[in-house]
Design a protein that fits this description.
single chain, 321 residues, alpha/beta, Rossmann fold, 23% strand, binds adenosine-5'-triphosphate, binds magnesium ion
């Protein structure tokens, strides 16, 4: 049985202008210890998928489909039931690290509270666990920094604390939403290495959300490419890089900096994201696609097998530019 099974997940938001169809019929599985990347441009629905798994959608949002975890559908759970699962079984690293830390609370309390609440540890036991986890995320001189406040740490160290908070109850799955976006390149690499080590030592599965395919290479086993809330392509990360089967994936790859390329060849995909007030009835990427056929404006392609993965595209792979 998969650790997490997302089946036909759709998410829509009620707004003054009607419904926003943010996520449309998305399915994927995460196996124990697997590292899955969810990639797509801003607005493609990445964060909302993670938030719906955690039961943290905004009040105007509704999720349908199923999110199976440990034999139970998370979408059907009450908030108290979800509270038990959050942190203890599924940890989340939020897109904005500062929003998950309380600026007025010392680090020891901030982390300690989580295990006291979820595992009923005493103060003393909690302190021990806090130290362990601060050492696991490689915060130097951890013992002497227990009483520090978040602002006393650098951006990279603060992100390590956020990761420590997600890890402290030893969850089976971590949802990491753009964990390195706010950091400079060197610190980004350190944090990705850290996540990799943690995954290997603890066997934690990780769902990594990012807009940057460059971050995914060398870290994630598998990659799910989203556009307009729909899955465009799903494959091993190796296949995504070696034999991308979707024009959108190819476009994203052209936007990844590559040391072999001459500066200036890097290209963002022209055009703007889809209007999501209508549920998609044709390929959402069609209007921006260099390979679009006439039929792409009428039909919604199914996810079909391509090599060891899947792609949703009406144009045969051999004809892609
Ligand atoms: N509360 C809300 N009400 C209406 N629309 C919303 C709400 N929250 C999110 N959306 C819409 O849902 C879509 C998906 O948003 P989401 O946050 O998942 O994007 P994302 O892929 O994480 O983008 P980014 O890379 O910018 O973080 C967007 O079009 C967004 O405007
Ligand atoms: Mg997001």
């Amino acid at each position: 049985m998969s650790l997490l099974s997302v089946e036909n997940l759709s998410i829509r938001f009620r707004t003054g202008d009607g419904f926003v169809h943010a996520v449309n019929d998305v399915s994927f599985d995460i196996e124990p210890g697997q590292k899955l990347a969810v990639v797509g441009e801003s607005g493609s629905g990445k964060s909302q998928i993670a938030l719906s798994i955690m039961g943290l959608l905004a009040k105007n949002g509704r999720a349908s489909g199923r999110v199976m975890f440990g034999g139970q559908d998370l979408l059907q759970m009450s908030q108290p039931q979800l509270n038990k699962i959050r942190a203890k079984d599924i940890g989340m690293i939020f897109q904005d690290p500062m929003s998950s830390l309380n600026p007025y609370m010392r680090i020891e309390r901030q982390l300690g509270e989580v295990v006291e609440q979820h595992e009923g540890l005493s103060r003393r036991e909690a302190r021990k666990r806090v130290l362990e986890v601060m050492e696991a995320v490689q915060i130097p001189d951890a013992r002497n920094r227990l009483r520090a406040y978040p602002h006393e740490f650098s951006g990279g160290m603060r992100q390590r604390i956020v990761i420590a908070m997600a890890l402290i109850c030893k969850p089976k799955l971590i949802l990491a939403d753009e964990p390195t976006t706010a950091l400079d390149v060197t610190v980004q690499a350190q944090i990705m290495n850290l996540l990799d080590e943690i995954q290997q030592e603890m066997g934690t599965a990780i769902m990594l959300i990012t807009h940057d395919l460059g971050v995914v290479a060398g870290f994630c086993d598998d990659t799910l490419v989203l556009y307009g809330g729909k899955v465009m392509e799903q494959a091993t990360t190796l296949q995504i890089f070696d034999a991308p089967g979707h024009p959108y994936t190819r476009g994203l790859l052209r936007a990844v900096p590559n040391i072999h390329e001459v500066a200036g060849e890097l290209s963002a995909i022209p055009g703007s994201p889809p209007n999501q007030t209508q549920p998609p009835s044709h390929c959402p990427f069609g209007p921006r696609c260099v390979d679009a056929l006439d039929s792409c404006a009428q039909a919604l392609p199914d996810l079909e097998n391509w090599k060891a993965g899947k792609r949703a595209c009406l144009r045969p792979v051999e004809e892609l530019s």
